[in-house]
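Fold this complex.
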Amino acid sequence: MAKLRVHELAKELGITSKDLLAYLKEKGEFVKAASSTIEAPIVRQVREDLGNKAEANPAKDKEKTSTPKPASSPKTSVPSPKPTPASTVTEAKSKPAETKPGIPTPGPTPARPAPKPGMPGPRRPAPKPPKPGSPEPPKATAPKPASPAPRPSAPRPGPRPGGPRPGNNPYASTQGMPRPGGGAGPRPPRGRGGQGQGQGSSGGRGSRPNPGMMPGSASFTRDSAPARGGGQGQRGGNGGGRGRGGGNRSGGAPGVQQMPGAFAGPPRGGRGGTRGSAPGAFGRGGGPRGGKGRKSKRAKRQEFEEQSAPAIGGVSIPRGNGQEVRIRQGASLADFADKINVNPAALVTVLFHLGEMATATQSLDQGTFEALGAELGYQISVVSPEDEDRELLESFDIDLDAEERSDADSLMPRPPVVTVMGHVDHGKTKLLDAIRSTDVVESEHGGITQHIGAYQVKVDHDGTPRAVTFIDTPGHEAFTAMRARGTKVTDIAILVVAADDGVMPQTVEAINHAQAADVPIVVAVNKVDKEEANPDKIRGQLTEYGLVPEEYGGDVMFVDVSAKNRQGMPELLEAVLLTADAALDLSANPNTEARGVAIEANLDRGRGAVATMLVERGTLHVGDAVVVGSAHGRVRAMFDENGRNVEEATPSRPVQVLGLTSVPRAGDSFLVASDDRTARQIADKRAAAERQAQLAARRGTTLEDFNRMLEEGKVDTLNLIIKGDVSGAVEALEDSLLKIDVGEDVQLRVIHRGVGAVTQNDVNLATVDNAVIIAFNVRPAERVQELANSEGVEIKYYTVIYRALEDIEQAMKGMLKPIYEDIDQGSAEIRQVFRSGKFGNIAGSIVRKGTIKRGAKARLVRDGVVLADNLTIESLRREKDDVTEVREGFECGITLGFKDIREGDVIETWEIVEKARD
Ligand SMILES: Nc1nc2c(ncn2[C@@H]2O[C@H](COP(=O)(O)OP(=O)(O)OP(=O)(O)O)[C@@H](O)[C@H]2O)c(=O)[nH]1
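Structure:
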């Protein structure tokens, strides 16, 4: 059967194609143009909705036309669907009916569909407040948007995050979008909303912490009942409740109201939102359409609004109306508070009442945010940094995924990009030099070798010259650093193993890194010129690590080389190309704007910011406007590894680029923007996002995190990196750790172990694999602790094995208890002692360090000896006033409840804080 086109159906229904398109869009159907076809089930449903509407609901139409709307333009939104109480007070009051692009004008057309059961109105996040004075028929509570994302007017390509509706037929059911398990389907459960979502049951809200299940929630419910009024009913014990559709509408009609009629305007997401927004909240007696008169409705709304502001646990938080709040992964309550403009402390309280405790700055998971958002009337979308960046680029009309797809037709082979890794002194640097010297082109043209971080050599492969790009930073530091940043530039790893030595710790490390990144390995068995060289031993050893030589029946190519004598280089390059051809499909579209990665960057006194960029796709030209991470600029000049000027760089070509306004980081990706301004704007936005991310809570894993995640059932494997002072200790520790058995549910995995200080590399690896680093009798190398802190990686220091075992075991059992530590707060020197009958001896003091706080624990020190411990700052005065704290440099009067005080004594105070165990 031929599919109907939009204009045909519109004609049939007596409306314009534009209206129909808008209507379809509102329903989440992305239909492009009047000439687009519509799937049969949709047609059926639209006919039902729009066709029937006129006859079915004349009253509504009448009401609508007679309604003195504040905004009478036909464009102005359709009778607001949102009767819902969900809107914030302010919004409801202040926002006039907004003009809603994309909403078909009902106008005179009779085509207002009856509220349609089961119309999930899948995607409109933006809730629309009821227009003041716009007496709506009790239209549905907002159906829950299945997706937080695109507004109807934003024709974003790509699947909606909410996921496809089943069968592409949103109208299919008479019930509201049944989702498996009654849950919110693929989309993260949004608490709030249930209302109107017609989900019938909210039971399946997935795994997010359900406040109702949490301790204290019962009392919360009770406590807040008076405040929340109507909504309360809905929550009905949150499992099934929370106002989610079914709860309040007597059974069969869930969803009935949520579809505010086709032309009734988009059922905006969440609007139903606030708890209690469901019809029942208004005392509609559960009748799905209990259409009340205007007055009653207003009264109800007012009532609701009064109830909805002051709320939880005594804190007053302006309620959202289902609007989307986007927060970064790992964000904290403070971040969320910032977005919705409330005091973080208030959110701490609300969360507490939801049964969860967190500090304002602690990083929270998605589920917790969603629960909280639901509670407050916001639809929370947690976005990863990658998504965030993707969206940022999309806002500049740059769609990397689409580019990739469109590249598919113009792919050309590109050279492999190779990284050389291996143990210290096994010859990585020498090998890179030797390979470089094989470059036929270089030897022809001369040029002065420049170490720019990467170079390309041309080799003769079966009579054809082929290029291979080498990352010129030996070792896996650069490799993991980039990987930690989500960048993968290496196609193939050459593992260098000295034939006179054998497999060493860093050899294993390199294997781990390459394998973790899914990068094929070619083994260069080096130093075969040495007498004691035993290449076969290397082959045998590496077999144990899963690298089985081809000659042993495996699939890894081993090449014997002597970097020193520059022997075996052609064979090695040959092996690289063969491996690339066999295992990888290396291609890119050279005929487009360049994208790639910065692999090295520095500030040169004379030349400014200099970055070596590896082109991954397209061609980079001198003059291009580029943005690299949060740096930008125009390519002023480019040089190759021989210091020669180049005008353009094709895929896999590394070039040194001048012209950036600031120094990017290694691993930052770059792209060519349409103009300088765009490049700058993207860079600025990224810089802002970075700053935010830095402010946001740390992301790594700590044993305490692990504990929590374990409780939440999120993890079952604790990844560890063990570093120690001697290999015996490391082995002993690993052995003992692996013997810890806390049952099958929790596994321990040592992803890396080694002797020596904790290095940047360890931290990078821990970042990537969410591992905790166990440092036994070793400390971090310089600046590594800083890196660990910034990456949120926990390094646990131990000097006694059993302490480490104890901690890990506790963590694995999910029983890690916090430990407390005394932290010095401040100290004051007694300058004069005042006797006071009333207060005892008062120490006239000056605060020498930190802050002295009333109530703090204190000790009295005389001549370096603690005279009395466990005292308390009983009173604290500045002049005549009682104060709670006095800062460094200020004088104050202190009573300690201890008589023997003298001039010159020092009062030290401390506080007890929870501390990570070590
Ligand atoms: N005999 C012999 N010596 C070699 C060979 N390759 C490297 N060497 C020597 O081994 C030592 C280490 O070589 P490098 O290239 O610096 O080793 P590396 O792996 O880069 O070392 P790090 O940079 O410290 O990690 C140097 O003294 C080299 O001269 C070789 O093929 N044969």
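Residues 422, 424-430, 474-475, 526-527, 529-530, 562-564 surround guanosine-5'-triphosphate (CB under 6 Å).
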